[in-house]
Amino acid sequence: MRIAIADDETDVVNFLKAIVEEQGHVAAAFNDGAALSQALVRETFDLVIMDWTMPKKDGLATLHWMQESLQERPPVIMMTNRTAKKDISDALNAGADDYITKPEDRTVIAARINALLRRNAGAGAFDTKVVYGKYEFNRIDQTVTVEGDTVSLTAKEFELADLFFRNRDRTLSRNYIMETIWRTTAALATRTLDMHISRVRAKLDLRPENGFRIFTVFGYGYRLETIEVR
Amino acid sequence: MLGNLRFRLLLEWAAIAILGTLVVASASNWRGTASFDNLLFDRLSTLSRPPADQNILIITIDERSLKALGKWPWPRKHHAELLTRLEEAEPRSILLDILLSEPSNEQDDLTLAQAMRGKTPVYLPMNFPTPGGDGNNYDIESPLPLFSKEAEGVGHVNIEFDEDGIVRRTSLCFKPEIEGRSWLHITELVYRLTGNPSPAAKRTNNCEERLLVRYSARRSFAEISYVDALMSEIPRELVKGRDIIIGATAAGMGDNYPGPFADGGLISGAEIMANGLASIRRDDFITQVGKSTGLLLSLLPVWILMLGFLRWQPRTALIVSLSLVGLVISASSLALFGGYWFPPGAALLGMLLVYPLWGWRRLQAMSDFMASELGDLALESEALPLPLSNDRTSDLVGRQSAALATAIDHVRDLRRFVSDSLEHLPDPMFVSDNSGIVTLANHRVGDLLGSDLKGQTRAALLDRLIAPQHRTSVEAYLWARAHGRDEAAEYVRFASPGGSTFVMRSADIRNDAGSKQGEIHYLADISALAQAETDREQALQLLSHDMRAPQSAIISMLPAIPDKDMGHRIERHARRTIQLAQDFVDIARMGESAFEGEDVLLADLVRDVADSLWPLAEERHVKIVIEDCSDSGFVIAEPDSLMRAITNLLDNAIKYSPTPGKIFVKIEHSLFAGSEALDVVIHDQGKGIDPDLLPNIFRRFSARAREGSRIKSSGLGLAYVKAVALRHGGSVEAENPAQGGALFRLTLPKASEVSPNLDA
What we know:
The structure holds two protein chains of two kinds.
Chain A: E1 2-6, H1 10-22, E2 26-30, H2 33-42, E3 47-51, H3 59-69, E4 76-80, H4 85-93, E5 98-101, H5 106-117, E6 129-132, E7 135-138, E8 143-146, E9 149-151, H6 155-166, E10 171-173, H7 174-182, H8 190-203, E11 212-217, E12 221-226
Parallel strand pairs in A: 1-2, 1-3, 3-4, 4-5
Antiparallel strand pairs in A: 6-7, 7-8, 8-9, 10-12, 11-12
Chain B: H1 2-29, H2 34-47, E1 56-61, H3 63-69, H4 76-88, E2 93-96, H5 106-116, E3 122-126, H6 145-148, E4 153-156, E5 160-161, E6 167-171, E7 173-174, E8 183-184, H7 186-191, H8 199-203, E9 210-212, E10 222-225, H9 226-231, H10 236-239, E11 243-248, E12 256-258, E13 266-268, H11 269-282, E14 287-288, H12 291-311, H13 314-337, E15 340-341, H14 345-379, H15 396-423, E16 429-433, E17 438-441, H16 443-449, H17 458-465, H18 468-482, E18 492-495, E19 501-510, E20 516-525, H19 527-546, H20 548-557, H21 564-589, E21 598-601, H22 602-612, H23 614-620, E22 622-628, E23 634-637, H24 639-656, E24 661-672, E25 675-683, H25 716-727, E26 731-735, E27 743-749
Parallel strand pairs in B: 1-10, 1-11, 2-3, 2-11, 3-4, 14-15, 22-24
Antiparallel strand pairs in B: 5-6, 6-9, 7-8, 12-13, 16-17, 16-20, 18-19, 19-20, 21-23, 24-25, 25-27, 26-27
Helix pairs in contact in B: 1-12, 1-14, 4-5, 12-13, 12-14, 13-14, 14-15, 19-21, 20-21, 21-25, 22-24, 24-25
């Protein structure tokens, strides 16, 4: 896969390049938004990782430009020092597919890159059984088994858990989740989703110790992160 | 206020107009000003007396004659002899003004009758004494038939007295009974010797009308004493062709009357007759204007004045009043010389009444108004209190004038005070009226824009004052304010073309009655403040982004370090640097914006925090045990800050926990300030908090290193937690519970219950 990396700091570029190449991908580096934009017109990339604060054309401007100008747009990971909830939701709502706050562990970055490159997220959706670490999903019974114990879930809870695991390390917007599980975004109390996720989290005991955690992206959505147990 | 005054003045005016009209009408109707009018008439008459008629000779029965001929009545043979002697000189007529109603010596009577029979016409008087005898209204004293049949005519000689007892008029005939016989005056009879009635008699329908006679100067008619005429030779030319009037003039004979001579002198009946006859001949009787005409003429100047009072200045009113008085008198005088008499008294009375009355009432009304206005002014609370004079030495008007002068001085002071205050305001300020014209601007505005701005439109001024990109927001602010919109901001901020930053605040100016008079616009130059804001923002940017970036770079390069343990420690310090900078920025940013909470499932937020801190806890062999007793309780929270607050608490707990250790985190229901709340309780197994530090533990920069603690803190963390708790309307407490360790309790108000449809 070809991955574009845009950041004005050489150290960061090298760091990202190392991670990308370690995963067996090809990296192309750019120092500013304008250079990235020119390359995006001429070449095809499978993923773009870019900094928010860049000379000439910043990340958000580049993102907007991509939305308007590119017919086929590769997924984008915004990677910045900004931590404010509003910045994060702004970037995601402007069309970024994920958002990484610096500094972040290389394993996490790698997981997030791979999550976005897993184009066929739906693959395996029709397998009857799937195993993610301790968790074994049985799609016929709609049950999850954790270390031999069957966890009882409602139909919606199972669908939700299944959706998260299939899209692990990928940031899902609330709208996407609700449309996928409930087929609607209307007339659904926002608290409903929070409470379902809370239950799934509690019932499946999704904690770092168990290899997964649910991360809330306030103002946007959720992400199921895989944790590499040291 | 002023309306009341106007109304009152109008009322007073109407009252005076009515009063004036009534007074003039009464005076005119009932001749209330007769004495004045008569006096004026007499005086004026003196100015132009006609010369005595040279065709009349009066033969006077005077004191000298009485002395020579003895007591009255004389034997009638004297009269006979006189008549005979006169006839020889061929007079035109003889008017014997001696009442011959009683018979005397028969021989004498016959001789007299004989004498009358001559070719000279002789006229005899008749009298109508009232009241008459035997209960009659009057008697008729006519000459004996013996005489009347010899006389050419018998006419009445009634004297017509005016109200003041002065004889000014004569009537050409007399009708004792309304439908009875009319007797001609003896003078008219004399005139009719010509064969025709006099022009005056022809002119009037009513011969009884009392005509004003033009009197010649007293004693100006030719006269001869009776005794001279009887005893001496009468010059023939003195008598020939003349009308002879023989009458008494001696004081004791009761035939003298007060005449219109202004000096109170008497005039004999004979002379009155002479004047009457002369007037008839000359036909120059004075016509007195009729009653209704007189009334109108009297009212006219008064009404002119009254109407004028409504419009004129007091000075004009005085001048016009005096001129009108003079005009009326002169007009009246001129008319008199022209043969018409208009008594001006009523008009003068009216004018002399209304002018001072109006002056007085107006002064009174003004005075009352002024007193009440000054009273009101004194009651109003002002920037400067109104000093009121207590001077009792002068009169009311004097005192009020003094008070008014004081009030005007005071207002002047106030105005200067206001304009000085305005002028010396440290910031630019200007005032615009309702039509958007700048009426007032202090010199600071002038300094900004460099010219006199009064009279310009506000829009033009703002165009010059405000950078184009901010012009619309200022206009929107003014519009929202002018239309009383609730969402109108308290002020508007803009940059000037020169690069300064201003805050403009506008307020309505309203008058006493509450209607809007304009707007006052106050500008504050906040350029320094704006610069400081920018500097602060840059400093915060530096801390939050620019400082973070190299730390992130450090961390990203650590995998390259062969010594993994060393790398790990470097990473911890780098992360801590980021954390410190973040804490500082977050505290500084807190309160910059209004609280904007959203629904947050508290237990999940705590789990998110715990999951984030898992690597640290794992490293320290600390287990975080979460117990959720909240039943999916929601709070209204700003997730960013709340997450960081809980992170700080849990991070502390991990740092101060023994290794291995446990941290108990419990989310539970509680009550806070009487309302439902949710608590996050974090209880560690460390050594607890130093009791000395406990009271101030949430204060910023309070040193809170615990004994034996490996980790030092800037103290920002807990201060931040406290700030967040307060911002969320909650609280945070710390204690050292009996079972050991430190316990932090963060309390947040619970969001209102909404029943979520779980299986929708």
